Amino acid sequence: MKKLIYYIILNIIINSYSVFCQFPEFRYSVIGSTDELSGQTSLVDVDKDGDLDWIVGTADTIWWFEYQGADHWIKHILGLAPATETGGIALDVDGDGFVDQVSGGTWYKNPGDPGKMWTKFSSKAIPAHECISADINNDGKPEVVMMNDTKGIYWYDFSAAPTKAWKGTRIGDGVRSGIGPFGCGDIDEDGDIDIVRTNIWFENQNNGSRWIPHLSLKMVVRDLTFPNSSKAWVIDMDKDGDADIVQAESYVPDSKVIWSAKMDKRGNTWYVNNVDLSTQQEIQSLAVADFDNDGDPDIFVGGSTRTKDFHKRSFIYENLDGMGKQWKKHEILVDQESFDARAGDVDGDGDIDIVGKPWHGANNYYLRNMLTELKQNK
Q1: Residue 7 has pLDDT above 90, yes or no
Q2: How far apart are CA 46 and CA 241, in angstroms?
Q3: Paired sense of beta strands 230-235 and 181-182, if any
């Protein structure tokens, strides 16, 4: 009886929220054009001017787009001939306060001046399909984790001499996609960062020198070409203080979206919460953030080339109850591919925007969250 009353009250609250609160509109703008088949994306403050810029690259060229306004981005060449596949990530490699670009076996030093070329270095790392960054060895500095489906998953320590060959430690076997965009967190609550890879998570032991695989996750993707490919994001979804995992199938025409909650502290058993079991999209973008500024995480996904639906679509699943149990699906983009989109407050107005690009196509685009403007106009 008490449970019934709880759900009645919860539905009243949710319905009241829907009446008085409006989910934000996302306004589409073209940033600029690049070559097709691009990845290596990051949404970071390249020039330290207080707003976010866009980095994107192909197998031949890496660019960064300097944000000046929603419809005004300045295109710069960042570097040439990266030794990578689609994997790249921006972070401060050499500790000078400027974000650099890591692209597989190469990295590019930010000169600190938008008009100057970036200096290229070889790291001897693997040609990554995915890159993520986290403090793996508990030294207070970020390291880079890279995955290639044939070579495996490695993490790299470059703190001693970033311009020399980086020290790589193998974590485990790779798949096409599974650790990005944010498949890392303290899964077993022992104070270090573990790595999530679709249906398996790797336990970090001895500051990253040893890894134990746990085949306990429920996201199993039965695709013959790219088996067990997914997108992953580690976050506390249900506000219980431990790490949950949001995942979306990838490289399949009708991807599902789920999030998994731990049933025990060690991460041996997980409970799967369904968000969307039939998106009709080949999901190649995932971001988890509070898009409507109501204090809980929402889920963004974007469809790419091999979609079941005739139209490519991007959605945000609004977290209605704040605990990840009830969701409302909002279509925010149609007839545009989304491959490795990123989310962040680009214009510094206090709400989370999205920057994306197609796999087949040239136009990079900015989805500006109009939540702040909506509130100002009320």
Answers
A1: no
A2: 33
A3: parallel
CA neighbor of 250 nearest in space, from 278, 227, 216: 227
168/212 Cα distance (integer angstroms): 17
User: Residue 160 CA to chain centroid, in angstroms?
Assistant: 28
* Structure tokens given for 340: 């490795």
> Hey, what amino acid is at 26?
F
pTM of the model: 0.94
Residue 332 has which token pair? Answer: 């925010």
Listed residue (290, 316, 291) closest to 303, CA to CA: 316
What is the reported pLDDT for 374?
78
Tell me the DSSP string of 266-309: TSS-EEEEEEES--SS-EEEEEEE-TTSSSS-EEEEEE-TT-SS
Instruction: For residue 211, report the phi and psi dihedrals to the nearest 5 degrees.
Output: -135, 135
Does the CA dihedral 369-372-373-374 come out positive or negative? positive
Task: Please report, rounded to a whole number, the percentage of residues in the chain having pLDDT higher than 70.
Answer: 94
Q: Which amino acid is at 78?
A: L
Q: 36 near 361, Cβ under 8 Å?
A: yes
Between CA 364 and CA 286 the distance in angstroms is 17
Q: What is the DSSP track for 13-28?
A: HHHHHHHH--PPPEEE
Q: Do the Cβ atoms of 114 and 66 come closer than 8 Å? A: yes
State both tokens at 24. Answer: 């934000």
Closest CA to 317 of 198, 223, 221, 237: 237
pLDDT of the residue at 17 = 42
pLDDT over 70 at 152, yes or no: yes
User: Is residue 9 helix, strand or coil?
Assistant: helix
Taking the C-alpha atoms of residue 80 and residue 63, their distance in angstroms, rounded to an integer, is: 9
pLDDT tens digit sequence for 196-229: 999 999 999 999 999 999 999 999 999 999 999 9
